[in-house]
Design brief:
Helix content: over 70%
Structural class: mainly alpha
Radius of gyration: 19 Å
Strand content: under 5%
Order of helices and strands: HHHH
Oligomer: single chain
Number of helices: 4
């Protein structure tokens, strides 16, 4: 076919992922940092329903998820903590 482009060579390049243990430890460190951020929000945030959901994401959901899914769980928890920070600062 005359107008067909060859596939981009960068699509076939993969970056080194590290060992399973390294990835596991990195995710645990990120989870610990997010839990500390959540605990640091104080009493006003603890009354918000999103606080309990963030704790559930960081504990139950995180523990039940596979290693590759844990990245998305941490992203959702980080977003929720960002929202809680904004909500509790403006109220």
């Amino acid at each position: 076919m005359p107008h067909r482009r060859p596939p981009a060579p960068a699509a076939n390049v993969t970056r080194p992922r590290g060992t399973f243990r390294q990835r596991y430890d990195d995710l645990e460190a990120r989870r610990t940092a997010l839990v500390a951020r959540l605990r640091g929000l104080g009493g006003r945030a603890e009354k918000h329903p999103g606080h309990n959901r963030a704790l559930k994401l960081l504990n139950d959901t995180f523990r039940k998820a596979k290693l590759t899914q844990r990245v998305a769980v941490l992203g959702a928890a980080a977003w929720l903590i960002d929202v809680l920070e904004k909500v509790t600062m403006t109220v």
